[in-house]
Amino acid sequence: MTALARCAPTLALALLAACAEPERATPREIVHPVAEHLLSANARALGALRLDSARVQALPFAGADELGERTYGASTGSEQDVFGEIVSAELLPSGRLLLLDASSGLIRVLGATGVSGVVGGLGEGPGELMEPTRLFSHRDSLLVLDAERSLHLFAMTEGGLPTYVRTMPLPFAVEDACSTPQGVLVLAAPITSGDDGRPTLDPSRGSLHRLDADGQVVASFHVPYRATSATVLRSLLAGRLLCSPSDGTITIAYSSLGEVHHLTADGELVWITRLPQHSYPPLREDPAGAVGPVRDFRGPIDQLGHLAGYGDSLLVVSITTRHITEAGRSSTHRLGILQRHDGTYLGDYADETIASVLFGTSSQFLLYRDLPFPTVSVRGVR
């Protein structure tokens, strides 16, 4: 018997075993966002593009009416006069204006004649802030969101400065927060810490979470993108919130997705608008789970920022574009204008001196400029 004949039974069994075993799929890298995982690719609620440059140019922040504008912030001077990065603002019923300065951790109180006082500071003590990102009124209190997973509560007194009351820990890192009639609403990827301290992801919970008076989640909803990677969700669900005090509606500008979503007070989707020509590097998730931007991306990087209202009819979203050049990086700003009721995109107003519109009402706007030094301007509307 030849060697080949002796080996034939063994070889035949091996081939049969190989054929009987199902072929195992090799994990492949994923490039996010995946179209079929986007709510905007599946929901029949997309806003339309209808450029209306004449209407955009006529809006007060475009400089058509600077009557009664008051500007605060100086290049040199005291701590009260020199601002850092203003990331949030709140207009009180009394007419006083509160500014949140992330650079110094200060809450600045503005009156008719200028800064009347400051509260807070960077630190870990009572009333101090680690990485403040948003302030807003909620019922009779002032809340300050800290990126260090906490909400700081301050009491407001007529004519006085905010007074620190307590700090509420949050179950996860929160992107933004606002006040609704049903309670505080926060924007966050649903990532909590497990018993072993490692991050635990529950993608089905959504990106919006209602909190009770102790900062605990009582309801979660709205899933704009589905993924199993905590890193991917944390990046793609970053954004800013706008909660309407008049009708309770919720609007979210997802910074990296380049989308604005509008919901009813009960969390039902009304419309989604994709910003035209939005440019952001896709995320590469390799088979081992490592996530990073794709290496061959070339182009500017757009990110959505603050959302503000213009009366009851329009929304203003602040857009920052980072340009990669041979000399380094430069940033430009513009404002995107949308109709509130259906998400129709009316166009951009490009003014590189306006970094963001921090809030807008039917009677005034608050504009933030970061160059040549940080200032805020209250501009009246006819």
What's the helix and strand layout?
Elements: H1 3-20, E1 30-32, H2 53-57, E2 70-72, E3 86-91, E4 97-101, E5 106-111, E6 114-120, E7 132-138, E8 141-146, E9 150-155, E10 163-169, E11 176-180, E12 183-187, E13 191-193, E14 199-201, E15 208-211, E16 217-221, H3 230-236, E17 239-243, E18 250-254, E19 259-263, E20 269-274, E21 283-285, E22 291-293, E23 301-310, E24 314-325, E25 328-339, E26 345-349, E27 356-360, E28 364-369, E29 375-380
Antiparallel strand pairs: 1-21, 2-29, 3-4, 4-5, 5-6, 7-8, 8-9, 9-10, 11-12, 12-15, 13-14, 15-16, 17-18, 18-19, 19-20, 21-22, 23-24, 24-25, 25-26, 27-28, 28-29
Q: What can you tell me about this protein's structure?
A:
There is one protein chain. The protein has 382 residues and is mainly beta. The chain is built from 3 helices and 29 strands. The strands form 8 sheets. It has a 4-stranded antiparallel sheet, with no helix packed on it. β24 (314-325) and β25 form a beta hairpin. The longest helix is centred in the first third of the chain and has 18 residues, at 3-20. Mean pLDDT is 84; it is low at 1-22.
Strand content: 35-45%
| Shape summary | globular
Mean pLDDT: 84
First-to-last CA distance: 105 Å
Let me know the number of strands: 29
Amount of helix: under 10%
Structural class: mainly beta
The largest sheet has its strands arranged as 2-29-28-27
In the predicted model, the low-confidence regions spanning at least 5 consecutive residues are: 1-22
Number of DSSP helical runs: 3
Largest sheet: 4 strands, antiparallel
Radius of gyration: 25 Å
